[in-house]
Design brief:
Length: 390
């Protein structure tokens, strides 16, 4: 029986782990598939568009040629040249200088899709065709809620990890303080007794009926009828404990009725979907800790990113990562190799979640502060009670 029960327990634990991980994997897999489908769609639409020479582009080239001929050998002598060339390039459209096949490759389109549903929007890559613009709006309409759902789901995981880590740190800190107090020379007798009691915790096995009878020394002095009644009650209680079904035997009932097991598994998965966002609401860690986590998280990426983006140093990479994770996305710092940054997509999602948790904690702290200020102002404006003489 032991050999057959172990494989069954292994299968049931594997099934429990699978159905516990299933909601999280379902969200992430849906987002990945959505990004790949969007990359295929925009790559097909934008890379195959016809490049036509417009009248504005011809006018721009004529004016540029005129300024180039007008320019003398010494640029400093021509004071109006800088203003003229700046005004001319302000009228230029960036689309004129973009090769659609290079910009809208599969990796470039995938990078664009990531900037759409993460709401970063750097602005250096955007659809030009009319159907591409319409599909971009439709793509963002469904992609942004899916991204927020993934962020909320991953927020529960990160909130659980952060809260447990913080609680374990607090427990370890309290144990260290307690050990210092107990080991000090000024420790009182009460603290010593508590330390000894905590260190000598013994869990005894339940006594048998004979051991219980032997421990009842006062029972022999009672009359026979009372002693027999108590012995009978103890025997009945002992028999009920032995005849109660074990909890793990419910597994055998499920194996005999697979419909019941299937319904129980489905209900458990549905409950897992309903619990999304609950752990994030219960998170309570210091805001200073979250700021430190964000600083370390961005610093790690800022140290790695300049290895393949040669136009960035540590400060520029730190600025770029902060603008990205906060979904501001100015677009002033551009990437030369966006396909390499796609490997950072998981980093972006986790980082956005960490920043989101920090913003959530900051929002809670601001609400508490506003409540305190409003209650303080209300107490100040309350009319003072006047005590009239009797």
């Amino acid at each position: 029986m032991a050999t057959t029960s172990q494989p069954l327990r292994g299968k049931t634990t594997c099934k429990k782990i699978f159905w516990a991980v299933f909601p999280h994997a379902c969200f992430i897999l849906s987002l990945v598939i959505y990004a790949f489908l969007g990359a295929l769609m925009f790559s097909h639409i934008e890379s195959t568009r016809e490049v036509t020479v417009s009248e504005e582009y011809r006018t721009f080239l004529q004016n540029l040629t005129y300024l180039a001929r007008k320019l003398s050998d010494n640029v400093t002598e021509n004071e109006n040249f800088k203003d003229d060339i700046r005004e001319l390039f302000n009228t230029a459209d960036p689309v004129w200088f973009i090769n659609p096949e290079e910009r809208w490759s599969f990796f470039g389109s995938l990078f664009f899709c990531c900037t759409v549903f993460t709401t970063v929007g750097y602005g250096n890559t955007y659809p030009v065709t009319r159907i591409g613009k319409y599909l971009c709006m439709l793509y963002a309409l469904f992609g942004i809620p899916l991204m927020f759902l993934v962020l909320t789901d991953m927020g529960d995981i990160l909130a659980t990890v952060l809260s447990k880590s913080y609680n374990e740190f607090r427990k370890l800190q309290s144990k260290i303080l307690a050990s210092k107090l107990c080991s000090g020379s000024t420790c009182s007798k009460r603290n010593e007794l508590k330390c000894r009691a905590q260190s000598k915790i013994v869990i005894n096995e339940p006594l048998t009926i004979m051991e219980v009878l032997r421990s009842q020394s006062g029972m022999k002095q009672r009359p026979d009828k009372y002693r027999n009644a108590e012995l009978f009650e103890m025997l009945i209680a002992r028999e009920n404990e032995n005849t109660q079904p074990a909890r793990n035997k419910s597994m055998e009932r499920w194996s005999s009725c697979p419909e019941l097991a299937r319904e129980k598994t489905v209900s458990r998965v549905i409950r897992n979907f309903d619990k999304i966002g609950k752990e994030l609401e219960k998170l309570d860690v210091p805001i200073v800790l979250m700021v430190l986590v964000i600083f370390v998280y961005i610093s790690c990426a800022a140290a790695i990113l300049p290895n393949w983006e040669k136009n960035m140093d540590f400060q520029e990479a730190f600025y770029f990562c902060f603008i990205t994770l906060t979904t501001i996305g100015f677009g002033d710092t551009k990437l030369e190799h966006p396909k390499f940054f796609l490997f950072f997509s998981l980093y972006i999602i986790i980082g956005m979640e960490i920043v989101f948790i920090a913003f959530k904690l900051g929002q809670d702290r601001l609400i508490v502060l506003y409540k305190k200020v409003i209650s303080f102002c209300a107490e100040k404006n309350m009319p003072s009670k006047k005590i009239y003489p009797k």
